[in-house]
Design a protein that fits this description.
Number of helices: 10
Number of strands: 4
Distance between the termini: 58 Å
Structural class: mainly alpha
Order of helices and strands: EEHHHHHHHHHEEH
Mean pLDDT: 86
Helix content: 55-70%
């Protein structure tokens, strides 16, 4: 079915909070911002010890956020594009009658890998523009990417998106009923969002320790993050139960991107990209 919006009010465990009984704020965005602020506070505090200017750390992150939003929306749209093209006559009528709903269908979600690549591109643009060593900045930010992402996955759990497969064992979760995604509440599910959040937080502590001790070579911190995340994301996709994230053959979009980024991670860790003296 084409005309099914990915997110609507009341989908997850606690998707919105009410303010003064009049305004609804999505908890996903609030939780993400909290994670971002915590990460930026830690990053700014430790920037000098790593040889980076505090203002560069903050402004590179600002460029990264812009790239994140653009990339996450763009990749989400690309996952929807095949269905839109397949039912283009229906979608075109929908766009003319209810344009906001049609645009929400096409751009109403976020895809992490698109956001990650967009954030990297945004930070690269800042570093190139202001002559800041990009790889050093990427290495420094390597621990904070999984920290922010961990908070984001908690937001996913509250919003009811990116949910897991049917599962009746220990730790299963039952989402409340909603009309937007009726299948979400029909069976207990794997809390895959919380599992991914926990794995990301573990990666934050490990990488933060390694970066602080300065025991890794240039390119290795960001390479380790890519290696770790591509593996866990490929495996966690097997536990996902939602169908809006896109597929290419037997692989989901995220699994395909994981396979593409895996050799990049290996190259970064090995140091083979460095020019020989």
């Amino acid at each position: 079915m084409l005309l099914q919006q990915p997110f609507k009010k009341g989908v997850g465990m606690l998707p919105y909070i009410q303010i003064a009984g009049k305004f609804s704020l999505p908890l996903y965005g609030i939780v993400f911002v909290i994670g971002f602020i915590i990460a930026m506070a830690i990053a700014r505090q430790n920037a000098k010890a790593y040889g980076l200017d505090k203002s560069d750390v903050i402004f590179a992150a600002a460029y990264g956020v812009i790239g994140l939003l653009f990339g996450a929306k763009l990749l989400y749209f690309l996952t929807k594009l095949p269905n839109i093209l397949l039912h283009f006559d229906v979608y075109w009528k929908w766009l003319k009658i209810i344009p906001l709903d049609a645009l929400e269908y096409a751009f109403g979600g976020l895809v992490f890998y698109g956001g990650l690549l967009g954030a990297v591109a945004g930070a690269w643009i800042y570093c190139r523009k202001y002559k800041v060593p990009f790889l050093e900045m990427a290495d420094y930010y390597a621990p904070f990417i999984p920290l922010i992402h961990g908070f984001g996955r908690i937001g996913c759990f509250l919003a009811g998106c990116c949910y897991g497969r049917e599962y009746h064992g220990f730790g299963s979760v039952q989402f409340p009923y909603n009309e937007a995604v009726p299948e979400l509440s029909q069976v207990p599910r794997v809390p895959v969002q919380l599992l991914e959040a926990g794995l990301n937080v573990i990666m934050f502590f490990v990488l933060f320790y390694l970066v602080k001790k300065k025991i890794l070579r240039s390119g290795q911190p960001i390479g380790i993050y890519f290696l770790y995340y591509t593996v866990i994301r490929f495996l966690l996709e097997m536990l996902r139960g939602d169908v809006i994230r896109g597929k290419m053959g037997i692989l989901s979009t995220s699994q395909l991107i994981s396979l593409i980024l895996f050799p990049v991670a290996v190259i970064l860790i090995s140091g083979k990209y460095r020019k020989k003296n």
